[in-house]
From TrEMBL:
Pfam families: GGDEF. InterPro entries: Diguanylate_Cyclase, GGDEF_dom, Nucleotide_cyclase, Rev_trsase/Diguanyl_cyclase. It catalyses: 2 GTP = 3',3'-c-di-GMP + 2 diphosphate. The chain crosses the membrane at residues 50-74, 80-98, 110-132, 138-159, 166-185, 197-222. It comes from the Bacteria. One of its GO terms (molecular function) is diguanylate cyclase activity. GO terms for biological process: cell adhesion involved in single-species biofilm formation; negative regulation of bacterial-type flagellum-dependent cell motility. Signal peptide: none annotated. It comes from Rugamonas apoptosis. Residues 255-385 form the GGDEF domain. GO terms for cellular component: plasma membrane. This is diguanylate cyclase. Its EC number is 2.7.7.65.
Length: 405
């Protein structure tokens, strides 16, 4: 079974070379495990494309009334014109008033509104045209109204959607088409209806494929944008975005939220004595060790040079201390000259430190990290009042007093 999955994976990656990691393959089928930063960027992109579509439909929908005026009798033209201008007003409202807030469900609502407007128009116009016996050119133009579902499903191709999302969006349109056929059961041209429905399903499949290709490319781009290229930790800008998101959520729920500032001890000696390649290896090893031992849901960001910020949503002060001790117990790697890589660490927590914004929280953790360095390095300073946790290695000197913050 593993060999089959490996073969399928390599074949799939041959179609999308260099875009996805194996762990990200599931993201193409469901958005459930998407990173929060990916979800926020995708939500903004979806809403922007919804607004672009709304602009296009708001302009083009009423213009078709000119064609209707030429070919349809006046009562029918007037009714269709009213529906067209109502739909145009709805599209214009979506364009003007809808904005992204970074929430994926907000983006889903935007898509639902975008597709609901023409779907309602399609059902209403289809029902109206069924009451008229049209011939010649008017019959040909009237038949063109039946192509609206094809346009809608083709439009799915411009959105970076997972397979499950494409199916959810396309299902109401396919169901409406099936219901319209059921309502005309007696006079149904079954070969034509079956062919049209099959074509709708085919267009849905092609649009879904285009959507997951866009999503795969977006995943790769976002990964490159939010990750530090050397250590694969989150970049500083991404860390700031994550801090803002989780701090706001913690404030709303009055939940604990901690950060830890880590700075490798005597890192300059590695670069000066053994070269920057040795320093890079030490940073990569340290990141791998921290990633292996940190809590599920925690985020490690490279803040600059040998400085890292560990973001711990939902962690109170004691939980943060326990998590940091587990990291120190796992070690941060070995120095080129021998001996362990150690770190000076400062902890700050939203509720314990009575902090009102994430910038002040990071600043407190930074100050406490410097206090740990001044106190002898290889130790943790955190809490209110500040507490010092003992060095992780007995060969390192300990201190008996709390370093000032």
């Amino acid at each position: 079974m593993n060999q089959v999955s490996e073969m399928l994976w390599h074949r799939l990656m041959g179609l999308m070379p260099g875009e996805l990691k194996k762990s990200e393959l599931g993201w193409l089928f469901s958005p459930h495990r998407h990173l929060s930063l990916l979800a926020r960027r995708r939500a903004a992109l979806i809403v922007n494309r919804v607004r672009l579509f709304a602009f296009l439909f708001a302009v083009l929908t009423p213009l078709w009334s000119i064609i209707d005026f030429v070919v349809f009798p006046f009562p029918l033209w007037g009714q269709l014109a009213f529906m067209r201008f109502a739909a145009s007003a709805a599209f214009a409202s979506l364009l003007v008033y809808y904005r992204s807030n970074g929430d994926l469900f907000n983006a889903y609502r935007a898509m639902a509104l975008l597709f609901a407007i023409p779907t309602v128009f399609y059902v209403a116009s289809h029902s109206l045209l069924a009451h008229y016996q049209l011939t010649g050119m008017s019959a040909a133009i009237g038949a063109g109204y039946a192509f609206l579902p094809f346009v809608l499903l083709g439009g799915l191709a411009v959105f970076p959607l997972a397979v499950a999302e494409s199916f959810v969006v396309a299902s109401p349109i396919l169901i409406c088409h099936a219901v319209s056929g059921y309502l005309r059961w007696a006079a149904m041209d079954w070969p034509a209806f079956t062919g049209a429905f099959w074509l709708l399903v085919l267009i849905t499949g092609v649009a879904a494929l285009a959507g997951i290709c866009q999503l795969a490319f977006m995943i790769a781009l976002v990964r490159q944008a939010i990750r530090d290229p050397l250590t694969n930790a989150f970049s500083r800008s991404s860390g700031m975005e994550i801090l803002d998101l989780h701090f706001t959520m913690a404030e709303r729920a009055d939940a604990p939220f901690a950060v830890a500032f880590l700075d490798l001890d005597h890192f300059k000696r590695i670069n000066d004595g053994y070269g920057h390649e040795a320093g890079d290896r030490a940073l990569v090893t340290m990141t791998e060790r921290v990633t292996q031992h940190m809590r599920h849901g925690d985020v490690l960001a490279r803040w600059g040079g040998e400085e890292f910020l560990l973001i711990m949503p939902g962690a109170g002060l004691e939980q943060a201390r326990t998590a940091i001790e587990r990291l120190r117990g796992g070690g941060f790697g070995e120095r080129p000259e021998g001996g362990p890589v150690t770190a000076s660490i400062g902890i700050a927590e939203r509720r314990a430190d009575h902090v009102g914004d994430w910038k002040r929280l990071v600043e407190l953790a930074d100050q406490r990290m410097y206090a740990a360095k001044q106190g002898g390095r290889d130790r943790v300073v955190g809490g209110e009042p500040a507490a010092v946790l003992a060095p992780s290695h007995p060969t390192m000197p300990a201190i008996a007093t709390t370093a000032p913050v």
